[in-house]
What does this fold into?
Amino acid sequence: MDLHGLDDDERVIAETAAAFAEKRLAPHALEWDATKHFPTDVLREAAELGMAAIYCNDDVGGSGLRRLDGVRIFEALSYADPTVAAFLSIHNMCTWMVDTHGTAEQRKSLVPRLASMELIASYCLTEPGAGSDAGALRTRAVRDGDSYVLDGVKQFISGAGASDVYVVMARTGGDGPRGISAFVVEKDTPGLSFGADEYKMGWNAQPTAQVVFEGARVPADAMLGGSDGEGAGFGIAMNGLNGGRINIAACSLGGAQAAYDKAAAYVRDRVAFGGSLLDEPTIRFALADMATALEASRSLLWRAASALDDGHPDKVTLCAMAKRYVTDSCFTVADQALQLHGGYGYLNEYGVEKIVRDLRVHRILEGTNEIMRVVIGRSEAARIRAT
Ligand SMILES: Cc1cc2nc3c(=O)[nH]c(=O)nc-3n(C[C@H](O)[C@H](O)[C@H](O)COP(=O)(O)OP(=O)(O)OC[C@H]3O[C@@H](n4cnc5c(N)ncnc54)[C@H](O)[C@@H]3O)c2cc1C
It folds into this structure.
């Protein structure tokens, strides 16, 4: 990451994340991928550096930083391991949801423990029958005295089984998004269980599984925002996703930058047809396109993060644009980096094929890139109509 133009604080934040990533993530990334090891101990070390509650308020243990700092942190971490960085992004999203939408009591009791990762959090929106159309979710939370009783299945949940708390969007009212509330559910709640860890293309250093609720009884004050949170869950989930989208895009950027740097070193050192591959004009064209895509991605990402920080009226659209463009472009860069390695790129030990596998899912989750186009297209249509 080019730190030119950053002030001292911004530079220290980005450098701290990069140093941590180089020392604690990079040496183990391939092994964690191969053994499907979820490094919770290393995540807690990241939390000690303030990376588990990055843009949460400091009165409850958050780091009080900006989204712009956040995307630089996630780029730096994912330069070493996009999978571990991406999980930390999801945890940050949950922590922010509690800090921003929780009651004073929820903030005080949960955020400090989330910030230290004494509690690790998962985000539970998707269901087997409701992915892109999340507003149609069917998990029910029925009020019974001082409790709610949850029934339903959440699909593809990152961290499922390993996390300590689950931020669960469930239906407390009628059909549609306004009938949804958010709950913070503890792992040891009777009636809560987990499916088998999914066997995936990438993201192997974090578990993905179903989260199953069968008569899971939680206290009424588990509803995020208390009684004000009734029917507010879908909005809370979508607010969380604005930040989630730019963070996941930052994870694509870091991974793609690492793949690019590996490819650049490879073509410099690889001799063919009597010279370095770096001297081939077509190889330089490929590098030119890749470097341009990385710079364009970073520019758009920083713009979207600043928009979120500043409450820009187009922040939702800008976050969707950044998510769509950066995750698509950076996947192409990573794939091209693999190509530039020739057959070696296909071998695990060079580390590029892992990046390609890890980055592929960023085009699918936190809202697919087709749904990003739906979001952007909707706002463009409204803008065009108004002119
Ligand atoms: C590894 C992994 C981890 C995940 N982690 C989490 C998690 O922690 N928490 C969580 O809640 N979810 C998680 N997800 C779920 C993820 O967010 C969903 O998979 C995603 O939102 C898409 O939903 P779906 O899979 O049901 O696809 P569908 O919604 O069924 O979509 C299928 C296809 O149709 C397209 N499509 C759908 N609607 C439209 C439309 N209106 N216009 C154009 N195209 C459309 C989609 O873009 C997609 O290409 C994870 C998924 C994976 C694979």
